[in-house]
Amino acid sequence: MGKKQQGQKVELPTPGELRLLQILWRIREGTIEDIVVASGEEPAPNYKTVQAWLRIMERKRQVDHKQEGRAFVFRPLISRGDVHRLSIRHLLAKYFTGSRSELLMELLSDERISREEMRQLEGLIRNRRKELL
């Protein structure tokens, strides 16, 4: 899981695709029915809609399936970490002209950041600095 073919560009999932990926990350693999039930939504997502999304996601290499009897069992091909990295890269490019420091400054200037989050960020920066030396 999380392995991509060399040279293949992975797209950022749409909100609907992300919803299905989050379910699959939680249950690891499942049939369409498993995914619908695991959504926990009321009303449950439409079976045919989930099926269509999964087919699109297969073409995008976000999920894969194997056949068990008459059922297709789907599993994610991209990890949560892959999506996090893609999302951050997209955010950086779109809103911060690729500047990580601008993004970090914006995060740090947010009055909602807690002391604990600030300590965690400081620790991450300290550790990363040591790795680069």
Keywords:
133 residues, mainly alpha, Arc Repressor Mutant, subunit A, two-stranded antiparallel sheet, 6 helices, 2 strands, disordered N terminus
Give an overview in words:
The chain has 133 residues and is mainly α. The chain has a domain of 62 residues: Arc Repressor Mutant, subunit A, CATH 1.10.10. 58% of the residues lie in helices and 9% in strands. Strands 1-2 form a two-stranded antiparallel sheet. It is elongated. The N terminus is likely disordered.
Compact overview of the structure:
The chain is built from 6 helices and 2 strands, in the order αααββααα.
Which secondary structure elements does this structure contain, and how are they paired or packed?
Blueprint: H1 15-27, H2 32-38, H3 47-59, E1 63-68, E2 71-76, H4 80-95, H5 100-109, H6 115-132
Antiparallel strand pairs: 1-2
Order of helices and strands: HHHEEHHH
Shape descriptor reads elongated
The total beta strand count reads 2
Specify the CATH class of the domain at 15-76. Answer: Mainly Alpha
Please give the CATH architecture of the domain at 15-76: Orthogonal Bundle
Span between termini: 32 Å
Largest sheet, spatial ordering of strands = 1-2
Sheet having the most strands:
2 strands, antiparallel
CATH H-level superfamily title of the domain at 15-76? Winged helix-like DNA-binding domain superfamily/Winged helix DNA-binding domain
Number of helices: 6
Radius of gyration: 19 Å
Structural class: mainly alpha
Q: What percentage of the residues does DSSP assign to strands (E)?
A: 5-15%
- CATH fold description of the domain at 15-76: Arc Repressor Mutant, subunit A
What's the mean pLDDT score?
92
Residue stretches low in confidence (pLDDT < 50, at least 5 long) are 1-6
Helical content stands at: 55-70%
